[in-house]
Design a protein that fits this description.
195 residues; 8 helices
Length: 195
């Protein structure tokens, strides 16, 4: 699925749902089926062909936790990213960040004194701020991010995916049910590029 900046719409909500899918096994089978249908719809909008095994492919994609996220492309169709984006969900992205933390030598991973890290003196997050001063605390912070919102490995009431469910289940964004011509955004560039 392409990664882009666009005006708010039902398709944007459904793409967000696909990005925020929890890890395999978190959803009940009937929920997996609902979100597999959303994923299939989004892939069809992206031009991914739906063959005779589309339902099975969507179910398998749901079990695997998403659909590939495609980087923005320039007008010639070339990727605007200097590296391959090989994760399917935001949760997978954070797992890759953790793998990076575990792969880089600790003396190269952190710079500056530990006391310079953000802490409750600077930011009050109700005790939820994890000071990152070494590899273990960096991995703990990433795990907290994943479990509290970015594709948790178990049911979590505050997960971003859970917050998007009511929108994804509606047939259209709320104000469009009242007025199909309503716009809640200003024009913006589509598929903004990071490079």
């Amino acid at each position: 699925m392409r990664l882009s900046l666009e005006p708010f719409s039902q398709e944007v909500i459904e793409r967000f749902v696909c990005y925020e899918m929890p890890e395999s096994g978190v959803l009940r089978p009937e929920q997996e089926a609902v979100y597999a249908a959303i994923r299939s719809k989004m892939l069809a909008l992206e031009g991914v062909p739906a063959g005779p095994d589309a339902a099975a492919d969507a179910t398998r994609a749901a079990a695997e936790g998403g659909a590939p996220i495609a980087p923005p492309q320039d007008p010639a169709g070339k990727s605007c990213e200097p590296y391959e984006i090989d994760f399917k969900t935001v949760g997978e992205f954070y797992h890759k960040v953790r793998t990076g933390f575990e792969s880089i030598a600790e003396d190269e991973l952190f710079i500056g004194p530990a006391q310079a890290q953000s802490n409750s003196r600077y930011v009050d997050l109700e005790g939820e701020l994890v000071p990152v001063t070494d590899r273990a605390s960096a991995c703990a912070a990433i795990e907290m991010i994943v479990e509290q919102g970015e594709a948790p490995s178990s049911a979590h009431p505050d997960a971003h995916f859970v917050a998007s469910i009511p929108f994804a289940k509606s047939s259209t964004v709320p104000w469009r049910r009242r007025d199909p011509t309503a716009r809640r955004s200003i024009p913006c560039a589509l598929s903004s590029q990071t490079r």
